[in-house]
Amino acid sequence: MPVIVITGNDTGVGKTRVTAALARELSGLGAGAVQIVKPVETGIAPGGHGDAETALRATAGRAEAHTLYRFAEPMSPPDAAAREGVTLTLEALLGRYAKLPPAAWRLIEGAGGVASPMDAQGRDIRAFASAVQADLIVLVVEDRLGAIGQARMAYEFAAQAGIPVWLWLNQIRPESDIILQSNRAALAACNLPLCAALKPGATEPEWVERPWLAAQTA
Fold this sequence. Notes:
The chain is α/β, with parallel strands linked by helices.
């Protein structure tokens, strides 16, 4: 079962939108159900729907959604957990993860940015990706002025997991063509691999590479 981790350079850069687009892409391959997993989410009231369900609603084909931990306060996962008397650990997250049913594909959407702490010891999505032996990390960066520096820093950090990292440019608001072209040229010049770009209001990305196809046949 190929496992893809979706993270970003920051919170609010469109990870859920990208997760939904990836889920649609993978379900179209006809290999079976796509599983969308959110290890931990904050700012969700009991019984509420979060990112995994949002991505699921935008997915065509066979798919399912799972959130391992939810906490009500909209803050970092370990702090939100502590406010509810829970000491959140990577081991606890992995314990719930191990109980998930199998699927043809598994998409794991992180919380916040790639360096955001997931547990009380400060371990982040890199540690989680390594522990679950993910095949790929898709790093979402907002496609705007400033994306080049953000992409370079976040990429170097994510790559320390020892897992292939691919960038995805997500345009949240309109941006000039010259900035968009500059971002792509700079990423190529820096040898940073780009898999896709997504424009505002679009559901289908502009595909550059599909590295998950290699993971499917590995």
